[in-house]
Amino acid sequence: MYYVGMPPSYFYLIDVLSQKICTYVVCVLICLQKIRLNQTFKGLSYDFCVSESFCSMTFTKTVPALAECFSTLILWKAGDTIKSRLPIYFRARFSHVQSIIDCFEIEIEKPSDPIKQTLTWSNYKKCNTLKYLISSTPDGYINYVSSGFDGRTSDIKITDSCGYLDVLPDGAGVMADRGFKGVAPALEKKSCSLIRPPSVSATQKSSKDEVRLSKRIASLRIHIERVIRRVREFSLLKPHACVNKKLVKYVDCIVVIACGLINLQAPIISKHV
Fold first, then answer.
1. Residue 270 lies inside a defined structural domain of this protein
2. What tens-digit pLDDT sequence spans the chain (273 residues)?
3. The Transposase Helix-turn-helix domain covers which part of the protein (predicted)?
4. Which helix (H) or strand (E) holds 174?
């Protein structure tokens, strides 16, 4: 778990992956350890007794193939399956929820192109970032992750254009925070409902029922934050890891690999909780 983020019971998959993508086991380990610990290629060369250039070349050649394999672990399960695994606190009022969504950002090195600098600048993070939409079931299984968008892209625009709405089943419930209010019309077209905390007005005091509903939704929506926290356990994807310019084009693949590995780990929350 420490070196590659994979539970011991799934270690056999390393051999399976090496055979599937026709490479050496050491190449798979170099990639997974780089993602998990964000070691330099020089450090990896010492660990695996190979050259620094071999580690760098192996990473750039192997990561896309690994991502293709791990993408099969990120899938949208049938509604009945999701419902059968609902944590107990969802069952009374939010039993139709199939997806909890949020966005997370990953810092990248400042691009040399001024236009790319502007597009990737995040006012929220105060640095250049790539932004991803992630969705999980109520028990924490990642069932969708988008490709990366420029850091200045709004959550609503990402949701509308990343392909999430294409895989979302008709009639599903989607839980999100207030920032996703604008996606409600698109969800209504698919007969889906948006569950979010009531809007807050600076001039009007919230009612007791609204406050109570906000707290209830926040206590359940926090599970997607716990999922994102697991993503951040991969050091290359920490908020301020600052991905090297040469590796930026591989971040989408890295995110997919991390999410696939997370789905092999123990559930975020037990269905009995």
1. no
2. 889 999 999 999 999 999 999 999 999 999 999 999 999 999 999 999 999 999 999 999 999 999 999 999 999 988 888 888 888 888 878 888 999 999 999 999 998 889 888 889 988 888 999 999 999 998 889 999 999 999 899 999 999 999 999 999 998 999 988 888 889 899 998 889 888 887 655 456 666 766 777 788 877 888 899 999 999 999 999 988 889 989 999 999 999 999 999 999 988 775 545
3. 28-71
4. strand 173-175
- Cα 94 to Cα 4: distance, rounded to the nearest angstrom: 35
Cα–Cα distances in angstroms (integers) from residue 224 to residues 22, 162, 218, 258, in the given order: 35, 18, 10, 15
Query: At 227, which amino acid appears?
Result: V
Task: List the structure tokens of 176.
Answer: 């999100």
Give the list of residues 6+ apart from residue 66 with CB closer than 8 angstroms, or none. 17, 21, 28, 31, 32, 253, 257
The number of distinct structural domains making up the chain is 2
**pTM score, whole prediction:** 0.90
Query: What CATH number is associated with residue 237?
Result: 3.30.420.10
Distances (CA, A) of 158 to 46, 51, 150: 41, 40, 10
- Amino acid at residue number 60: T
- Which pair of structure tokens corresponds to residue 109? 């090195």
Q: What is the DSSP letter of 21?
A: T
Same domain, 169 and 217: yes
Residue range(s) defining the domain that contains residue 117: 75-264
Residues 250, 119: Cα–Cα separation, whole Å: 18
